[in-house]
Design a protein that fits this description.
Length: about 375
């Protein structure tokens, strides 16, 4: 029988587990604090828990502790990219960014992805598996340990489609924002989706105070279908209705992600169509020059085209920012570090710091 994943349990669930083991309820609180407040890497570190109980826990539970297989640090802005090994040998990536207002971590929600967005490196080999709540959490815990600095913002914008891993995502958000753990405010958590409409509606009904980011990337159905297969399932009209619903339910402004691809979606006409599409919605637009992925032919928009695009949106009264490029000299784009690692062969392969031009600001 597979062992239960102890770091994915809520405090209430842990209390019930501990009672079954015949231990006192306060032990559950101690265990929980070791896992989620002190971010212990193993049962062995839990100095005020009796040895016999630690042994019993070791037999009954799986303890998630991700191992950093590679770390790349940007010489430009200190952005760090981590490649973590999971217990089954799979790999995921996370990015750590330092801002004036605090440190931000971008985490992965799945190994690979099945959404098939044409410009994205994470999806090239499809979905391998969902991450558990503890595997999402531990990306943040491991980075906090490694940097020695508190994380204040979390963005679920790494590899994977978070709304395709809904139960684990919600469990993760619950643990991350719990006052007995890291206690990150919901307002400092952003979840990015390619636009799975029924799941967005379900999320709206949870009435969380997180930010929902929608990867739009095109302002007509035709263009969006070329870039994102999910657009064959849901039209932009449905998506816009859904965004309005999300705002109605939560009072939270939607963020639209729009990656600018040269000659594909970056013309004046594209900007005008986008402005008309989202006009009147309480939203913010993040413009991102697309990260070139070597397996794909997409090219970044010219700097001038990006500026013109942003200026046109501003003129129409739409709140838009161009994402600051961070970690340009490391593999910033989703899924690229993992791919390079897999291409290079077995675990333990040393990565070379080949400079690639990437944007990795996940704020
Ligand atoms: N599946 C989710 C979250 C992961 S992708 C989603 O689709 O939103 C995080 C963001 O990075 C998305 O907006 C995605 O479209 C974008 N992205 C992926 N590959 C990119 C690339 N090569 N260049 C620019 N943005 C990219």
């Amino acid at each position: 029988m597979e062992k239960k994943d102890i770091k994915s349990l809520t405090l209430a669930e842990l209390k019930a587990e501990i009672a079954v083991l015949g231990e006192k309820p306060f032990r559950a609180v101690q265990l929980y604090e070791w896992m989620h407040k002190k971010q212990a890497r193993s049962f062995a570190e839990m100095t005020n828990i009796p040895l016999a109980m630690k042994e019993k826990c070791g037999e009954c539970y799986h303890y998630t502790a991700l191992r950093a297989e590679a770390v790349q640090e940007s010489a430009i802005d200190g952005t760090k990219k981590y490649l973590f090994a999971l217990h089954d040998g799979n790999m995921v990536e996370s990015v750590w960014m330092r801002y004036k207002h605090g440190n931000s971590v971008c985490i992965s929600s799945q190994v690979g992805c099945r959404m098939g967005c044409r410009f994205c490196a994470s999806t090239l080999d499809g979905l391998v598996r969902n991450l558990t709540a503890s595997e999402m959490l531990d990306q943040i815990y491991a980075i906090t340990k490694e940097t020695g600095e508190r994380v204040s913002n979390v963005v679920v914008m790494g590899s994977g489609e978070p709304l395709d891993n809904y139960e684990n995502l919600l469990r993760f958000i619950g643990l991350l924002t719990d006052e007995n753990g890291l206690h990150i405010s919901q307002r400092n958590v952003t979840v990015s989706t390619c636009g799975i409409v029924p799941m967005m509606r379900r999320l709206a009904q949870e009435k969380l105070q997180i930010t929902l980011a929608l990867s739009l990337h095109a302002a007509t159905d035709e263009k969006r279908r070329e870039l994102m297969p999910i657009a064959n399932q849901y039209t932009l009209a449905e998506l816009m209705d859904c965004c309005a619903y999300y705002f109605e339910q939560t009072g939270r402004r939607i963020t639209f992600e729009y990656s600018l691809v040269r000659d594909v979606n970056d013309t004046r006409r594209d900007a005008e169509t986008l402005a008309a599409l989202i006009w009147g919605l309480n939203c913010h637009v993040n413009l991102i020059p697309v990260n070139p992925v070597k397996e794909r032919e997409y090219v970044q928009s010219e700097r001038q085209a990006v500026e013109n695009f942003a200026a046109l949106l501003a003129k129409k009264g739409i709140n838009a920012t161009v994402r600051r490029e961070m970690g340009r000299d490391i593999d910033g784009a989703c899924g690229q570090l993992r791919r390079r690692f897999l291409d290079n062969g077995s675990a333990g392969t040393k990565l070379t710091g080949k400079p690639d031009l990437h944007e990795s600001d996940r704020q």
